[in-house]
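[SOLVED] Need 3D model of a five-part complex

Original post:
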Amino acid sequence: MNALILSALLGVIMMFSGILLKDKKSIRGIAIAGMLLLLVMNVLEICGTVFFKVNTEGLMVFDRYALLFNTIAYLSTLIYLLLSAKDMEKVGVNYAEYFTLIFFILCGITLTSSFKSLLILFLGIEIISIPLYILTGSDKRNLKSNEASLKYFLLGAFSTGLMLMGIALIYGATGTFNTNFINLYYESPSALLIAGMLLLLFSMSFKVSAAPFHFWTPDVYDGAPTVFTSFMATIVKAAVFIAFIRLFDEAFGSLHARWQLFAGIITVATLFIGNITAVFQQSVKRMLAYSSIAQAGFMMLSLYSLNTDAKEGLLLYTAAYSFATIGIFAVLIKMNDYTFDGFNGFAKKQPLLAATTTIFLLSLAGIPLTAGFLSKFFMLKAALAGGGNLWLVIFAVLMAAVSVYYYFRVIQAMYFKDGEGAFIQASPFFKATLVVLAALIILLGIYPELLFYWIYF
Amino acid sequence: MQNVLQIVYLIPLLPLIGFLINGLGRKHLSKSLIGIIGSGVVLASFAISIWVFLQVKGGNTHDAHYFDFINVGSLKIPFEFKIDQLSSLFLLIITGVGFLIHVYSTAYMHEEKTEHFGRYFAYLNLFIFSMLLLVMGSNFVIMFIGWEGVGLCSYLLIGYWFKNQEYNKAANKAFIMNRIGDLAFLIAIFWIINKLGTVSYSEVFTAANLAKLNTTDVTVITLLLFVGATGKSAQIPLYTWLPDAMAGPTPVSALIHAATMVTAGIYMIARSNLLYSLAPITMDVVAYIGLATALLAATIALKQNDIKKVLAYSTVSQLGFMFLALGCGAYTAAVFHVMTHAFFKALMFLGSGSVIHAMGGEQDIRNMGGLSKKLKITFITFLIGCIAIAGIPPFSGFFSKDAILLSAFEKNPVLYGIALFTALLTAFYMFRLLFITFTGKFRGTHDQEHHLHEGPAAMTIPLIILAVLSIIGGFVGIPEVLMHGGDKLVEFLSPVIPVHGPSTVSHSTELMLMGLSTGLVVIMIIFAWFKFKNYQRTEETGFGKVLENKWYVDELYEKIILKPLNWLGSFFNNVFEKSVVDGLVNGVGRMVNYSSRQLRLLQSGQVGNYVLLMVISMVLIFVLQFFIRK
Amino acid sequence: MAIMQILFWLLSVVALFSALMVITSKNPVYSVLWLIVTFFSISGHYILLNAQFLAIVNIIVYAGAIMVLFLFVIMLMNLNKETEPQKNRWLKMAGAVAGGCLLLVLVAALKDSNIQNQEALVNEGNIGLIKNLGKELFTTYVVPFEISSILFLSAMVGAVVIGKKE
Amino acid sequence: MPINYYIFLSIALFAIGIVGVLTRRNAIIIFMCIELMLNAVNLLLVAFSKMHHKVVLATDAATTVGTDGQLFVFFIMVVAAAEVSVGLAIIVMMYRNIHSVDVNFLNRLKH
Amino acid sequence: MVPVLLILIPLLGGLASFFIKNEKAVRSWVLFASLVTLSISIFGLTIFNSSGYLQHQCQWLQSLGASFSVKLDGMGQLLCLLNAIAYPVVILATWKSSYTRSHNFFGLMLLAQAGMMGVFLSMDALLFYFFWELALIPMYFLCSQWGGERRIAVTFKFFIYTFIGSLLMLIGILFVYSRTEAHTFSIASFYDAVLSDKEQFLVFWLFFAAFAIKMPIFPFHTWQPDTYEQAPTATTMILSGVMVKMGVFGLIRWLLPVVPMASFQLGNYVTTFAIIGMIYASLIAIQQNDLKRLVAYSSIAHIGLMCAAVFSENSSGMQGTMIQMFNHGINIIGLWIVVEIIERQFGTRKISDLGGLAQKAPVMAILLVIVALANIALPLTNAFAGEFLMFNGLFNSLGSKYSLWFTVSAGISIILAAVYTLNMIRKVFYGNTNTLTEAVTDVAITEKIALGIIVLLIFIFGVYPQALIDLTEKISVYILGEASLLPKVRTH
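Solution:
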């Protein structure tokens, strides 16, 4: 609750700061300070100090899982702002508004991570989506940006329609929007319920860009201004995933056997399309878009196998994935050639950045000692637990091997090829932040208890 | 109290030390010093061997255990020396002949550069060391160590002049052919381990253990051992390396490829005679192979013109005789022949060495002739050698060969007939060699002619000593008929090689056979004298050419073994490796790439298509849910 | 009850027909108008179901504000002509078929659901009245209500960001 | 009214909306079709709310069961309004740049 | 404590050396670090049997059921010793050859060492996997940064290929884990895990994929010759000397005891392939004209024998393999050193371009001949005991009725080994010098030391292999006990 209200307030504050202050630096300052405050508030709430006692009975529940995820999301956002806030200036004039929207999105994230009623889920997702449509299109002079935003908007609205239809059907079958009550209707569920559930599955798959509902992702991530791609590819996606697994755990957990097959199909499709298509990309940005699909495929495993490992693992996964991807994007933004060749000879010019980028890539590829490995490990473990589907796991693993191919192409370009990848100088602060981020990833990779400790202490 | 024979480790140790000194210090020591060290250590071990021999003669045999070599689970392979009649006898031969040849070498190799001189002696010492290991080992593994060791040394010494790639090829050939034999030997060892769980003679050759082995086991083991022997002792089909081995310096040929190493096979079989006695089939095989080899080699030797080649083939032939003896169960006779053969064959090789030395490296007998005037000692000693090998009483060769022929006759008169024929051939080609080389008039160049001279004392003295030995060496085994209790060797070896009853052949027959062989040999020699006393070079034709070309056996091997293997190798290397092993892996990679290129076309960029695809997949899933998996 | 039946059928037919016209008529302006008709008929259904508040809101917000906005934009882009470029036939066909399949599948799936014999209370029941809804909205649903204000804020900001000339 | 009628009616409207999205090229029309889909949902929700209301009404005269359904519709309208404002803004921006609202021209980003 | 140090010192040493920019300094630092490691591992040998110091366990990832537990048992001792010896030798041998940004080079080398140490020491499946990958990553960078001209593609193939293997192994690990009673990754619980026959086969292949690719055995060896050819020689030494042993090690520690049934049943097939591979590789080796490729293929042949011997599942084969892992490591490093010297002097590895080195560089010639002879397992060189035992094991293997044929055909490959080794010696060192080899200079002092150490080891363990055998006796008995199909008697 702290975070929810505060983030809304911060959004408003940023809005006015845009009008009052002209100096971008101070605007950025406020935003980062606010972000920090937000983070602190949230941690306080975890520790049990709630400032706003609002009764959200049956609508929201701020349990530890939600709060923990919020912490991850806020932390990633903080890092994201520290790394890339400056680069938003390049996008357009409405500097403060961007922050406003980001804070509103965080507000939506807070909703989706802690909803108990489908109404809140719906509102949350909309609060996330609408600002994203705008951020995607915020580079107005850039046709790609326009196109991306329009595509995103049309498809997003369409999927919203699907979602609403699903909710309506479920309401018809159960007469409630509260997930816990929905979960009670498991013996001889009516066709309405099943249909609604499937529609929700589709629309959520769309939001997390799982095949075959992923089509918007590459275009939108590619077209959107890179700063915002970074944001929506990481924190937003993670948040929606948390909502996804919450929904299907709390509302349809009792029907698991019913939808597991479809979850499996979607997982396989996502893994396949994401990884295979990424192989042939020439632009790193687009490659990362596909890789985000591939990673989504791995996260889908947690949905497929709905158990404790899966849920904990998903938390770790979101953290690992967000951190790594934010890091890579932060570096990518500074490049002015987004193709693989743009990275040629990068290590010679910027050894430190190259090293950190390598760590991020290794983490995405799931190499041990990085958080990426453990998160994938959790997914596999969850999928195998209790005689899960071995072939699915083997397939996932082979796809992970494929993913190594395109991640390592970047490493090869950076280290083993020579070239004039022109590169805007990075401030020492930027470098320091990246190093901290990399250290964080390694730390999570060696000592994940750091995270799990908070779930039950 | 500990047995005095515990110190026998000195015998192999001294040559090893010599090897180390000469090997490491070859740059810094003077030639004379190298020579002294090289020969000295062997002399020392010879002295110890004599002492050991006397000990053994006094009835003191001993297994000297030093440390556990390999000790896995129930399998125990100690590093242990066995000192008994057989090994002590071989010790004498190896160290004794070895010493003489070392001495000879000091003079023969004197033109070599110091470091190479040192290298040479290092190799020789190393060889002596391994050979001693071979005969002293108290179990098959130690024997195998020596076995491969001598193989290595022969490889090194054949390739001693490493600038000449032909020599190196010969060296490789020797080593690899030996390896083939060694593999069989190895498998035999595994078989024994598998059946008896031990490898040491004292345990394998106990009646209890031998009883454990059924006929097939014994037959297979013995056959495998025999294959090993054919490798080392140059029998059919693995004999072809020996003539090529003549690439090495002549003393080496004398030591390794005549006196000692090649007799390892005989030693092994004699050592495991108890096994062989249980395997009649193997015995036949051994006998026939031996005889066949003897005959084949003898025929080839008839037409060779390289002095050393002739001797090489005669060696192969003589080894064949020894195997014949083994095959006929006359192990003692074989060992006896090993000894005498060591004397006269070493003698003849050294003799040929001094000839070559005198001729300045010339080896083709067609360019020699009439050397008897210049090289008196060489001529006389060589003559003695020839008489010995031809088997004229009372020279050593007579007794040993007679024993063999007798055993052959016992087994089967046909064998005897062929063996006798071979013996006659031997006499013929040896004297052919003698006459072409030493009689008639000189056919070489002029500077060769007035450069002819007898070698220094270091070369002549060994010759003389060996000559004496080849004369008297036979008296240790005078057959019963000629002198009662004359056959000292048999009774000496009896603890190792049990004597099975008195010979079935009546004394009269035996005497008759002796007379027959001797007579025929003499005739042969006279025939050779008339044919070759003044030899003119003639081109070989017809069958003679086949013999000159060694029955084209090398070419045959080339065709049926080397070519196919090479073809297979290049097929694997160029075709299989690239197209299959790599092909599969790269193929997968290419497939991924291709499917990636196709799959991205799905991302058409058209919103309409995206929605369409989404709707279709929705419909499909609905259908799946509601109409297929009710 | 008969009058209710008739009204229901009438409204349904109107709704479906106008909806079809929306997607078939060449001229965008017509589509807008037809859509407005659809909205009206849906509002009619609301009234039928005695959900007066929603009926009103639907007319005001949708048929009123939103549709006017649409119309306004279309006029602004003067798209009011017949010459809208068409998709190629096969794609249209495919689209139609796919949509039809979805319809069929859903109908087939839901026709014998376990609530098929239930009925929607028509013309009675007062939950649809402003009084009741308002009470609920400002007690139980106050939080979402406030949250939706954020939605509007962000929409507003967004409109500014997108629309403002630079 | 049997609830099935409402279900079918709204599903039909929904499907029509989808077909519209699939068959038209004009972004605005597509958007309108999406609005149509939303309305179909609204109708369905109201119908369901009344259905549930009826069930309970039989036992308890003062029940407010079903209110949440209608409130949900209210929220949907709210969201739709917001969406429309943003969506039209985007479409206008698009039109400013390429002087067309034809979605088939949105093909810079592909593969 | 000792095992922890064995991992930590290379790790820290490596990390430290990233920051030493001066080449000379970093060399000496790395040499120092590796010597410290060596001394520790020797210390470990001296306190063998006093197990208190030789194992260490502490909490790590307990929420996953894993723990950081390392133990220095006989096999571990042997391989860690190999690993520890290899590094100083390699560093000395490559003292002359310089690398761009050498601090990175040596840093990565030491990291790889740490990883391999971990693999040999870890008593926890997850930990094992961690180190398994950890050893691979530095190798990737080493090979594709400092290798030959085709390095990037080749190394990438190598990396992905092995990576796929290890991922499959990961699945296997997870699968077994899900079947353990205690739900831990500890090796004991893995040995106790009860799997049905079907599951055993499954797990067998999953694990075997990783090991087969790593060793590699026919037909999974496609990465190896290219990688050895392209990688910088120092790296190749470590790859073939130490890293390849990880595969065999894995078979022994993580495959046989975990799925005894499947290992017993499938042993014959594996052995068949291993032996086909031996002959295949030997025949190819005869054809090679490139020294590196020749050695690479010979290594495939040797590894094949080890793999076959492991599956003979008797003490002779098992211990033979264990000591052979060590000895083969020593010998092949020796071979690489000579290759390295030759390549650095003449800039070519083509056998046909060389010749007559023996005249000009006798020391090199002699040392090479010794190493080469060890490579073909001549008696009184270290390899003999190992190969003898392995062949013996193969011949006496209980599982197979084809053991005789296995032995014979495997034996053929040792004849072929003699062929290519001797031909190599003949063509490179004997005969007359040519214009290229006229200018050869004999080995430098550092190389002499390196090769000297190797030759010394060759002879020590050739004459007294029992030292190694004693070291590995207990562990091999233990593992065979675990791997036996008879009802197990638990010792832990």
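Edit: The interface with chain A takes residues 106, 109-110, 112-115, 140-141, 143-144, 147-148, 150-151, 153-155, 157-158, 160-162, 164, 166 of chain C (CB under 8 Å).
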